[in-house]
Amino acid sequence: MAGKHIPRSKSRILLFCLSLLGFSVLFFLFSLSPLRNPTHFQDPNPNTTPETSFVVSLEHFLTYKVPIASTIRDDTASSVLEEEEVKKLDNSMFRTETNRLNDHPYFPVGFPLKVYVYEMPSKFTYDLLWLFRNTYKETSNVTSNGSPVHRLIEQHSIDYWLWADLIAPESERLLKTVVRVHKQEEADLFYIPLFTTISFFLLEKQQCKTLYREALKWVTDQPAWKRSGGRDHILPVHHPWSFKSVRRFVKSAIWLLPDMDSTGNWYKPGQVFLEKDLILPYVPNVDICDAKCLSETKSKRSTLLFFRGRLKRNAGGKVRSKLVSELSGAEGIVIDEGTAGEGGKAAAQNGMRKAVFCLSPAGDTPSSARLFDAIVSGCIPVIVSDELELPFEGILDYRKIALFVSSGDAVQPGWLLNFLKSIRPTHITEMQHNLAKYSRHFLYSSPAQPLGPEDLVWRMMAGKVVNIKLHTRRSQRVVKESRSLCTCECRHPNLTISGATA
């Protein structure tokens, strides 16, 4: 049967329309290509293996992962609608949490945690990263005690590693314990991407204080902050000097810290405590000695105890000078004064890889980056720091990889040396084997790895969520005659700390 005849004029019109539609689709797809977007580069070498160097990872991040010119908008709430926005957000979060509670019987403890990442103005984020990137080779920039500031920034760069993972496309992320949400009403927690350590060390003093005040206002103006008083907000302040001028105004937030410093030199009473805050490890300053390296260096570990660092420190670090006096000159003991630069790094790395035990005494604060250098070097830490709190201790058992010695015992003549010599070889081998397995928990990387420190952050945070919600809701319903503090207080033998965050 012959087909129905289509007039030639109509056929041409139909063909023209189809061609026009095809070109339109191609143009639309081409316009979305990153090669056509002037604010982005296409990454020619996507990261397939984890990068653990802060400098290398940051260079890659700034070159391929973020806009050349920031397009981030300021999310600050309008002061006119402030109260209405807070109430609106609170109602939305109530509905979301109610639905999740009904749909998921294990809510609110289950994974993944839902984290909202604030899109702060670039002066608080990208501009500071570029500042570091453009100046880190200036090795003459040192602190008053001679420490290169860029080395300190690297050791405390936890804010970069967490943020870079959170904002990465989900297709590139490996962690399943946390997801970024783009609606505040869906969030369990709120992340504040403020680079407090970079700003402290690389900006002029007054410029830094001004930036801190501006960041404080920006954050505390947010409806989500006002709703909870900041209790569900995460603030990275990993260097004890960072954000110091204004942090009393954000003490209800979850601080990411290197330790608690119960001496009171760096944090005021009531500002930090384990129930609220989270301790994160320093970024190691030496290369990892993996299982293969440990096997190769085992027979070469002829040094019994190694220490390299500042021999005199302030406050809680006074035990160092006593230990040096007690141990210097003893057989099998190597104690060196630390030096800056690549030479100092190489000397520390070589010394740790030749030693069975590495001394880890308190410094200006109870913790030290040296502890984590020892762990990734396969050198069993000997911790002499009575007030030390450790990262992820709700998950990791440090007794399997470290020795804990009281400062009173350690400074007694001959005590520490005799103690180390009394440890059985089988126990040493077992601890070295455990170090090889534990090292992964202290290696920040891009992309962040399962069971790496970024992952353990969110596993620890999950344990805080219910308590955060408790204090948030309690603060929202109390009346003026109510007790101002909860009865659940965290007490320290030397300090009385009001542990309530209501």
UniProtKB/TrEMBL annotation:
It is a single-pass type II membrane protein. The chain crosses the membrane at residues 12-32. It is found in: Golgi apparatus membrane. Residues 112-418 form the Exostosin GT47 domain. Keywords: Glycosyltransferase, Golgi apparatus, Membrane, Signal-anchor, Transferase, Transmembrane, Transmembrane helix. Pfam families: Exostosin_GT47. GO terms for molecular function: glycosyltransferase activity. It comes from the Eukaryota. GO terms for cellular component: Golgi membrane. Belongs to the glycosyltransferase 47 family. PANTHER family: EXOSTOSIN FAMILY PROTEIN (PTHR11062:SF184), EXOSTOSIN HEPARAN SULFATE GLYCOSYLTRANSFERASE -RELATED (PTHR11062). This is Exostosin family protein.
